[in-house]
Amino acid sequence: SYVLTQPPSVSVAPGKTATISCGGNNIGDKSVHWYQQKPDQAPVMVIFYDTDRPSGIPERFSGSNSGNTATLTISRVEAGDEADYYCQVWDSGSDLFVFGGGTTVTVL
Amino acid sequence: VQLQESGPGLVKPSETLSLTCTVSGDAINTYYWTWIRQPPGRGLEWIGHVYFSGTSKYNSSLKSRLTISVDTSRNQFSLRLTSVTAADTAVYFCARRCSAGTCPLDYWGRGTLVIVSS
């Protein structure tokens, strides 16, 4: 089965840039979506199809995907960005959804 | 579009967990409807999905115990998981996905906590 690997945690100072990686075999050939989950809330999509941003999501959130790594970048980090972030793909080989293990972003 | 999960918050071991997701603001006969769960303190796990036609796909780890069905007349879809154990304790979310496999989960319910305990 297809596996997505994320770092468990990322720490960043306010105003700086947070980078969250999502590793997978040839993930650049897949469409990657990113979700933000704050405590006791449902996940919210922040990036879809690698780079697209839903309405209402700040431009500070951006995504990229190439080779074996997809990346979510949060620029000018704010305290309100503290959350867990999950990457997700659809594995066409098995026709199954796959989530990464999640990354906790802590704002120092 | 709003999704709302409902069902018992406590289920005894070996019994059946049943949840329903009610969809409002959209017709159910257009998208794939998905269940996801999250054990306490852990990550997201895709459970499976159902299309309005009744076609479904399940996580292989749950397939033998799982049924996801749809009721278009009530704009609802449901999850049924048999022979539950403590490992099935989780927050269960329902969500919407468009018909292409590559589509994201764009709308989610708020989730409902199900505890498996005697």
Structural class of chain B: mainly beta
Number of helices of chain A: 0
Beta strand % of chain A: over 45%
Spans where pLDDT lies below 50 across 5 or more residues of chain A: none
* Shape type of chain B: globular
Strand count of chain B: 11
Radius of gyration of chain A: 13 Å
| % residues in beta strands of chain B | over 45%
Gap from first CA to last CA of chain A: 36 Å
Mean pLDDT of chain B: 94
Described by strand count, sense and barrel closure, the largest sheet of chain B is: 7 strands, mixed
In which range does the helix fraction of chain A lie? under 10%
The backbone outline of chain A, from C-alpha atoms, is globular
- How many beta strands in the DSSP annotation of chain A? 9
Low-confidence stretches of chain B: none
* Class computed from helices, strands and strand pairing of chain A: mainly beta
Along the chain, the helix and strand elements of chain B come as EEEEEEEEEEE
Order of helices and strands of chain A: EEEEEEEEE
Oligomer: heterodimer
The overall pLDDT average of chain A reads 96
Short description:
The complex is a heterodimer of chains A (108) and B (118). In chain A, 0% of the residues lie in helices and 45% in strands.
Structure overview:
The complex is a heterodimer of chains A (108) and B (118). With 108 residues, chain A is mostly beta strands. Helices cover 0% and strands 45% of the residues of chain A. Chain A has strands at 9-12, 18-23, 33-37, 44-47, 61-66, 69-74, 83-91, 96-99, 103-107. In chain A, strands 1, 3, 4, 7, 8 and 9 form a 6-stranded mixed β-sheet that branches. Chain A is globular and about 40 Å long. The N and C termini of chain A lie far apart (36 Å). The model of chain A has no long low-confidence stretch (mean pLDDT 96). With 118 residues, chain B is mainly β. Chain B has strands at residues 2-6, 10-11, 17-24, 32-38, 45-51, 56-58, 66-71, 76-81, 90-97, 105-108, 112-116. Chain A binds chain B through residues 1, 30-31, 33, 35, 37, 41-45, 48-49, 54, 84, 86, 88, 90, 92, 94-102, and chain B through 34, 43-46, 49, 57, 59-60, 93, 101-106, 108-111.
